[in-house]
Amino acid sequence: MSYLDELFSLRQKTAVIIGGTGELCGAMAVVLAQAGAEVVLVGRDQEKAAARLSQIKTAGGQGYFIAADITTRDGLQKLLTMVIEKSGQCDILINGAGVNAPTPFLEIPEDEYDRIFAINTRAVFLACQVFGKYFLDNGVSASIINIGSMSGVIPLSRVFTYSMSKAAVHNISRNLAREWATQDIRVNTLVPGFFPAEQNRKVLTPERVDQIMGHTPMKRFGKPEELAGATLLLASDAGSFITGQEIIVDGGYAAMTI
Fold first, then answer.
1. Which single residue of 15, 145, 202, 242 has CA 20 to 30 Å from 230?
2. Which residues, 6 or more positions from 133, have their beta carbon under 8 angstroms from its beta carbon?
3. What CA–CA distances, in Å, run from 185 to 27, 83, 162, 188, 244?
4. pTM above 0.90, yes or no
5. Quick one: pLDDT at residue 199?
6. Which of these is catalytic: 3, 134, 162, 253?
């Protein structure tokens, strides 16, 4: 292999991508597969999974789909058991499932709050517990990539509960990075800027798009494939000394003030 192939190679690795049927995590799954990893797409939509797996196969990769309840410990334990039975191992975990709602703060009902936190925060917490125990018990040199949000870094309007839930994800990533560093388990947060996807289309009104563009030096939205470099860096040995970090891919949004 060439130097770059060896540095970023994921051959003989298995990556579990929770939320892998979505647009951004689906694109990340393709990248991991192209780097040599066997990818496991976890989600609810088998049709979307089939389309993504076809893309992965066309790109020369390999993977499969598992439908799982990621909001319960039992569901995640069953997921891990199925992965180990089928693949024999797990080396990379990506927590990327997410939901959003544009409800004004004073009108947010408790059931909406609970639903967003169950998927965006509780599921990440439980997945890190279940998979983290497997990594620790088996001495796996692992990478956990939690998908954060720009709203977890900089307060944004109209996504109050989503922002709170993602800020918690950023925090648990840093805490686990510190906790597991000596066991060679790296935990980082990948922070996409504005990439049109299922969970944010509800709030992307023309007025809001103008505001976003006015605050983004590159003056455009991100493309899912532009997460490739950061994904490979965090998943591979190229990022072996990177842990507890927020890797922001945002076209300069976080660097902008006035």
1. 202
2. none
3. 24, 19, 27, 10, 11
4. yes
5. 60
6. 162
- Does the active-site annotation cover 3? no
Task: Give helix then strand counts, H and E, for the chain.
Answer: 9, 7
Instruction: Give the pair of three-digit tokens for residue 141.
Output: 């040199």
Tokens 């309007």: give the residue: 157
Q: Rounded to 5 degrees, what are φ and ψ at 223? A: -105, 140
Identify whether the C-beta of residue 18 lies closer than 8 Å to the C-beta of residue 97.
yes
For residue 217, give the DSSP letter.
Answer: T
What's the CA gap between 27 and 192, in Å, rounded? 13
Strand partners, 247: 190
* Chain centre distance of CA 171: 15
CB atoms within 10 A of CB 149: 25
Best CA proximity match to 223, nearest among 26, 72, 74? 26
Report how far residue 250's alpha carbon sits from residue 148's, in angstroms, rounded to the nearest whole number: 12
List of the chain residues with pLDDT < 70: 1, 198-202
Q: Strand 38-43: give its sheet, edge to edge.
A: 62-67, 38-43, 14-18, 92-95, 142-147, 185-192, 246-249
